[in-house]
Amino acid sequence: MIVEEVSLKKHQAVHTDLAPAAVGPYSQAIKSGHLIFTSGQLGLIPESGKLPAGIEAQTKQVLANLAAVLTAAGSSMDDIVKTTIFLDNMADFSTVNAIYAEAFSTTPPARSTVEVAGLPLGGLVEIEAVALTSEG
Predict the structure, then answer these.
(1) Burial call 70-80: b when 16+ CB within 10 Å, e when fewer
(2) How far is CA 94 from CA 18, 87, 98, 112, in A?
(3) Alpha-helix residue ranges (DSSP H) falling in the chain
(4) Span 18-44, pLDDT tens digits
(5) pLDDT score of 8
(6) Residue 113: which of 70, 71, 67, 82 has the closest Cα?
(7) Share of the chain above pLDDT 90, in %
């Protein structure tokens, strides 16, 4: 039996000013090898730190923030393999689903959607993702 030694690289934090800064002690994303694990993205507008009004505007901003974090990590929305959507109210599911479908029109990633008791800063929707990158 031949056993190969594998060198494990330490993970690295990802940060971009094109997405809102973390609202707690966590990174916008962590890159580990060819995987990127994003923190949940709220619909905060990066320039103001404010949430836009309504589920549609927040969902669109969440997806823009997610795209910015992935770009900073050397990836893109097309490279997402799994998402988790957290909704403040499951009654918003169809609205979020329609906007999400536009963002992932070719090969949608695997996904879970759950209703939560509340989201930070009064957000209505939060999305986290796992994506691939060609960078090692």
Answers:
(1) bebbbbebebb
(2) 28, 11, 6, 14
(3) 55-72, 93-103
(4) 999 988 899 999 999 999 999 999 999
(5) 52
(6) 82
(7) 84
